[in-house]
Amino acid sequence: MATERAQATQTPPQNPAPQAPRGAPAAPTIRWDDSNLKSSYANVCNVSTTREEVVLVFGINQAWERGQSEVHVQLTDRLILSPFAAKRLANLLTNVIRDYETRFGALQDEARRPE
Q: Which of 11, 33, 39, 80 lies 20 to 30 angstroms, CA to CA, from 59?
């Protein structure tokens, strides 16, 4: 019985990492460092672009009532991406939203909702 228990708790051998073709550079190992990570909430996002960068500006709209003559949006964060990183982000977000809608139903874009 003790032998069976010891065998059950042993870690199975790991499969070796796939080998890169000869002459091809090996893929680097990615180590995520979240020691400086901060979290922010945003319910507003604006995007602007130049040839070299895509700028995302995030903020909070606390005007919950319709029909106000002025809406104050507190801008809180700016994220500047290369166009390549922005395209990867767009692809990731498209996949995330598709998966979300598959599980929970279609989302309606509030900005386009009829009054």
A: 33
